[in-house]
Amino acid sequence: MSLSHVWPKTATIAPNGHLLIAGHDVTELAAQYDTPLYIFDELTIREMCQAYCQACVACGATDAVIHYAGKALLNTAIAQVVHSEGLALDVVSGGELALALHAGVAPHHIHMHGNAKTPRELDEALAADIGAIVVDNLDELQLLITKTAGRSTPFPIQIRVTPDIATDTHVHIQTGHYASKFGFPIEQLPQVGALLQQAPGLRLTAIHAHLGSQIFDAHTHVTAIDVLLEQVVRLRNTYQLPIEALNIGGGLAVAYLDHQQPPDIAASVAAMWQQLQQGCARHGLPRLRLELEPGRSIVARAGVAIYRVIGAKPVRDLPRWVHVDGGMADNIRPVLYGAKYTALIANRADATANEVVNVAGRYCESGDFLLKDTALASPVVGDLVALAVSGAYTLSMASNYNMVPRPTALLVSHGCVRVMRRRESYADLWRMDG
């Protein structure tokens, strides 16, 4: 029995009612690896990578570069999978950079983002000779000018711009508006151009913008391309900076609920490429390379979080609280963004969702919940609650609140189960104590 489009592409329901992912019985995996447990479908990740690459080829953007945004989820296995599919990698810290290099990602396929990169992280990026540093503010630019003053070969950078474009998404994941903490306001670009004219150690290769996350309408990206092209013309004509590419960031939405439909990747990429081509022709620019940075849309659908029901609490005239063994420390999105999920009982996946409940986490905060007003098949102690689309911005933001070990993460394919990250032990929790 198949499941809706919010579940991994290999997710099915077995004749005994158990949820299967890549042919593996989730109930058996939970018994073997304990809960909470995160299960990632390798096929879904690979097919999402391929969807972006194929979309670029189909519309003629054959030299486009797709970067996986590692902040969505990054570990050795994920880095190796996306890199093997031809994607480059974006990192946002020295730790992510070190992991990418450890995973075997070629340095020239790595870009470093971040609004507050430390001097040490910049030194690490320069020493590794990565593909580019995406510069976020004037202080960072001036520091890089100093650090690269003696280089024989200019180091490639991109300039992140805030194009002041509003997006229809949660305020905490809007990043392209004027007041965002990220990027250069457009009015600062003359200062950028003047500084780069006197910076022989740096080479500006691209203008970059990222509008936010969970964007269902790709028209916002199309609009941003026009704004960015105007800045490319300004920097090329006034400051003789030979920009090669336009990086429009990521942010295409995924469906978390059955009624949602994510943007069509092929149509979205084609619309961006067409707008870039037409804009270059209109401004008399040479053809610019398109760069994209998907993260959530690569890995979110692939991940399923599994929790065991520990107990329940009736509430007069309101849905029951169902208590599970995980919560905000492994998935803070419901608390942080009011995020909603599709869920089912993994050991009775074919059962009718006949009771509206609230699923509470185990942590000592009243706001700790995973699901609100969600229909499930009358959960009882011992049941396994499965949350779809749990692959992005869950484990990447996980913590040890209440000194609870972070969960195991598995990468599954037909015939294979790989432990991407083992469950932490109690000893891990105090290993760094003095």
Question: How would you describe the overall organization of this protein?
Answer:
The model is unreliable at 167-177 (pLDDT under 50). The protein is elongated. The strands form three sheets. Strands 4, 14, 15, 16, 17, 18, 19, 20 and 21 form a nine-stranded mixed beta sheet that branches. An eight-stranded parallel beta barrel has the order 5-6-7-8-9-11-12-13, surrounded by six helices. Strands 1-2-3 form a three-stranded antiparallel beta sheet. 29% of the residues lie in helices and 24% in strands. β8, α6 (138-147) and β9 form a beta-alpha-beta unit. The protein has two domains: 12-34 and 302-430, Lyase, Ornithine Decarboxylase, Chain A, domain 1 (Beta Barrel); 43-299, Alanine racemase (TIM Barrel, Alpha-Beta Barrel), CATH 3.20.20. The longest helix has 21 residues, at 219-239. It is α/β, with parallel strands linked by helices and 434 residues long. The termini are far apart. α2 (42-59) packs parallel to α9 and α8 runs parallel beside α9. The protein contains twelve helices and 21 strands.
